[in-house]
Fold:
Amino acid sequence: METDPPIRRFLPHDAPHWVPEWEPFFITICCQPRGKNQLCLQPTSRLILQSIREGEKQKIWHIGLVVLMPDHLHGIFHFNPVPGMKVSVVNWKKLMARKLKIKWQRDFFDHRLRNDAEYSLKYAYISQNPIRAGLTKDVHSWPHQWPKPKREDLKTAR
Structure:
């Protein structure tokens, strides 16, 4: 008996009206194809992180932590309610695709971090990702992240 493959739906990426403004979200954005290094090459990595810092200066978002992996990125973002999460990420992906020729998967994953414990767990998960992937032995030596994780944050995140 054959079944149809699952249909990938578009995610709404809209925070419900009752969620406070500037709440933290865990975000994952993947490249296409998976397994190909598009993000951790220089000058690409430097320009991506520079654009993320620029988005913070323009108050599009506030960044808790962003870590680039070869074919995806993880981050903790606090989005300005205007233009909001979806518009901000879509516009940023388009800009990076145009400027740096990055090929992104359609859409992205988001999860609202509802309390300090969730925030700490995701912070630890994100910061340890290059170690789990065998790309570095020390969180602080991974050059493709911003800001550098603080040692005290890593201790509380364990």
